[in-house]
Design brief:
There is one protein chain. Helix 6 links the parallel strand 4 and strand 5. The chain is built from 7 helices and 8 strands. 31% of the residues lie in helices and 17% in strands. With 241 residues, it is of the alpha/beta class.
């Protein structure tokens, strides 16, 4: 598994306390999505889930949505077309929400926020800014990768828009990812062949936060973390210990 330092039972709640953006990717969509859910639940008992999927998309073996783990009032299904960034809308809308003397940093943040799909903007506007940051999982982002920037600076603008909106984002995608993933504070490669082989799998941090459970080079055994193991076994409450 390489020369990374093993962390068999990390404090998963670090992500929510530190207000960082996390990116998970791997070859098995089911494994990645179930891990994203377990990670979200460890940081927020009632996380929100944005599912990028079209009506004919179905995941087998099932992920959190198919398993019924996401309550209806916390689930937002967005089609590929609905997930396109709102460039034209943002250019027009900016004139109605900013003054000519707004600092450049503020203007840039608003521009990036308004480029997010209107459905996600609505969700962030409704639930962001709570006393405790809610966790938002944005799943299946590989399905709309072609619509968004692929370089670090472009991707970071989208991330900052969510962080400034008062939420903790976790993005989950089926790999292989592009270089834009390094715009995230924590980037983890889910090395598990499929759901049948999850006990042999590891979460490997490509990018992380120094002196944290998710530091660069950390290798976390999936079987050694109760929340991960529960989700991968299909338990209704994967964070139960």
């Amino acid at each position: 598994m390489g020369e990374g330092t093993a962390h068999p039972a990390p404090d998963l709640s670090y992500l929510g306390r530190s207000s960082v953006a996390t990116f998970l990717y791997g070859s098995s969509r089911t494994v990645v999505l179930r891990l994203a859910y377990a990670l979200a639940r460890a940081n927020d008992p009632h996380p929100y889930w944005v599912e990028v999927r079209d009506p004919n998309d179905y995941l087998d073996p099932p992920g959190p949505v198919e398993m019924g783990w996401i309550p209806d009032d916390h689930l937002f299904v967005v089609s590929r077309s609905e997930a396109k960034p709102q460039d034209a809308v943002s250019n027009l809308a900016l004139w109605t929400v900013v003054r000519s003397d707004e600092p450049r940093s503020v203007l840039g943040g608003l521009t990036d926020f308004l480029r997010l799909p209107s459905s996600i903007q609505e969700v962030l506007g409704r639930y962001g800014g709570e006393p405790v940051r809610p966790v938002f999982v944005v799943s299946n982002t590989d399905r709309v990768r072609e619509y968004y920037p692929r370089n670090v600076s472009g991707v970071r603008g989208v991330i900052d828009a969510m962080l400034h909106g008062g939420v903790t984002p976790i993005f989950a995608t089926q790999g292989p990812p592009g270089p834009g993933r390094f715009a995230f504070d924590v980037v983890c490669d889910v090395r598990a062949k499929d759901l049948s082989h999850w006990q042999e799998g590891h979460l490997v941090c490509e990018r992380g936060v120094e002196n944290s459970p998710f530091h660069e080079g950390a290798e976390i055994s999936l079987a050694a973390v109760p929340a991960f193991a529960g989700a991968l076994k299909g338990e209704p409450d994967p964070t139960a210990t």
